[in-house]
């Protein structure tokens, strides 16, 4: 596999609206400027997605929360999920607010390193604040479920460690994918809902930011997995995925260990019964999965706990999602050959088919 690491600061797009130098990086070396995009406004997609997971480690009070602010051109999708991930009766609830034709009016920041993302209407207030070494999620969601209010106030430590950054084109003209995954952010704070307080513990709980800007083709299927854990006193995270454009220059498969990125080759995510990219019904999502890398540095089994399945069909806009949470076990090998043993790491892997 060809893997081009970009280290010099540069503009993401040229005057023709195409990526100048496709590849991967350890930070936002590419400068994204919305005005340089040559595709129509309704095709531009900008999103900030946070996932925060609490693992009680040996107990059964495991939970997670996910927050999305997005401007997807002809539609904005703002959502919050609360998930109970204990082996005893796992469950989840997701609530979504749609806003039509934002097309840049949400003023999403052009970098993840500065600026705030926010959405507000009469039902949902969601704010992401970025300070020097910290990120802050604030949320108030009226009638999140059965008329009850959900509130969140979560702080994430972001001291400037390395991250996974990728810039890849699609084969279609003016279409591109620019994405950053920031793993291993220590999480603290609370969510309150239905008379219960969910507390994140910075000594063992982590968050990931999925920050993306780009122009997508209309019909896409992708696989994406991510997770974080404290292993023998070290911060460990991983990001794996494919289906995001032409990856001949680079993929987004990495291990993060004590703030340093270790690059992996191609990844294969094997879901039992999954024989077709666009077949979303045949895979046996709750059976045990197998994940391997072509360089033999990432070999895992994944035991599902909960399938967060969601399907929307508005004819022109279709989304069929299976975000599966579970526990991963196996081995990961760092660049220097050090083997990290993973045991029952709480994380997620998803298969998603979207037309939008």
Explain this structure.
- The protein contains no helices and 24 strands.
- It is mainly beta.
- It has one domain.
- The strands form 3 sheets. Strands 2, 4, 5, 6, 7, 8, 9, 10, 11, 12, 13, 14 and 15 form a 13-stranded antiparallel sheet that branches. The chain has a 9-stranded antiparallel sheet with strand order 19-18-17-16-24-23-22-21-20, with no helix packed on it. Strands 1-3 form a two-stranded parallel sheet.
- β18 and β19 form a beta hairpin.
- The relative contact order is 0.15.
- The mean pLDDT is 96.
Protein topology:
Elements: E1 10-11, E2 23-25, E3 30-31, E4 44-54, E5 63-71, E6 75-84, E7 91-100, E8 117-120, E9 124-130, E10 134-145, E11 148-157, E12 164-169, E13 176-193, E14 196-200, E15 206-215, E16 219-231, E17 234-242, E18 254-257, E19 260-263, E20 267-270, E21 289-293, E22 298-313, E23 318-333, E24 339-355
Parallel strand pairs: 1-3
Antiparallel strand pairs: 2-12, 4-5, 4-15, 5-6, 6-7, 8-9, 9-10, 10-11, 11-13, 12-13, 13-14, 13-15, 16-17, 16-24, 17-18, 18-19, 20-21, 21-22, 22-23, 23-24
Radius of gyration, CA atoms, in whole angstroms: 19 Å
**Helix/strand/pairing class, anyone?**
mainly beta
Anisotropy-based shape: globular
Strand tally, please? 24
Estimate the helix proportion, in percent: under 10%
The number of distinct structural domains comes to 1
Q: Poorly predicted ranges (pLDDT <50, ≥5 residues)?
A: none
Mean pLDDT score, rounded? 96
What's the total helix number?
0
Summarize the helix and strand pattern as letters: EEEEEEEEEEEEEEEEEEEEEEEE
Give the distance, in angstroms, between the N- and C-terminal Cα atoms. Answer: 30 Å
Largest sheet features: 13 strands, antiparallel
User: Strand share of the residues?
Assistant: over 45%
InterPro entries: DUF2804
Protein name: DUF2804 domain-containing protein
Pfam families: DUF2804
């Amino acid at each position: 596999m060809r893997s081009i690491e970009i280290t010099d600061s540069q503009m993401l797009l040229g005057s023709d609206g195409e990526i100048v130098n496709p590849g991967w990086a350890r930070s936002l070396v590419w400068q994204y400027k919305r005005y340089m995009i040559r595709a129509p406004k309704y095709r531009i997609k900008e999103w900030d997605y946070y996932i925060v997971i609490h693992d009680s480690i040996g107990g059964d009070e495991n939970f997670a929360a996910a927050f999305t602010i997005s401007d997807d051109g002809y539609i904005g999708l703002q959502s919050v999920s609360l998930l109970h991930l204990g082996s005893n009766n796992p469950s989840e609830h997701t609530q979504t607010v749609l806003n039509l034709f934002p097309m840049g009016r949400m003023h999403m920041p052009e970098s993840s390193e500065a600026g705030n993302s926010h959405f507000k209407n009469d039902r949902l207030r969601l704010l992401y604040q970025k300070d020097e070494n910290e990120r802050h999620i604030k949320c108030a969601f009226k009638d999140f479920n059965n008329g009850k209010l959900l509130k969140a106030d979560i702080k994430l430590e972001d001291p400037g460690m390395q991250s996974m950054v990728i810039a890849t084109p699609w084969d279609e003209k003016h279409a591109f994918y620019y994405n950053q995954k920031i793993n291993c952010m220590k999480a603290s704070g609370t969510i309150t809902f239905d008379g219960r307080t969910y507390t994140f513990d910075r000594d063992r709980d982590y968050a990931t930011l999925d920050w993306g800007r780009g122009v997508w083709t209309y019909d896409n299927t992708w696989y994406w997995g991510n997770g974080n854990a404290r292993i023998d006193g070290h911060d460990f995270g991983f990001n794996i995925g494919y289906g995001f454009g032409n990856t001949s220059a680079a993929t987004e498969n990495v291990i993060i260990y004590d703030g340093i990125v270790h690059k992996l080759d191609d990844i294969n995510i094997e879901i039992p019964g999954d024989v077709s990219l666009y077949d979303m019904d045949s895979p046996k999502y709750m059976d045990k999965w197998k994940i391997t890398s072509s360089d033999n540095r990432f070999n895992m089994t994944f035991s599902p706990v909960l399938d967060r399945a969601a399907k929307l069909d508005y004819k022109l806009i279709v989304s069929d999602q299976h975000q599966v949470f579970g526990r991963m076990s196996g081995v990961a090998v760092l660049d220097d050959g050090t083997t990290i043993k993973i045991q029952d790491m709480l994380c997620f892997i998803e298969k998603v088919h979207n037309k939008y």
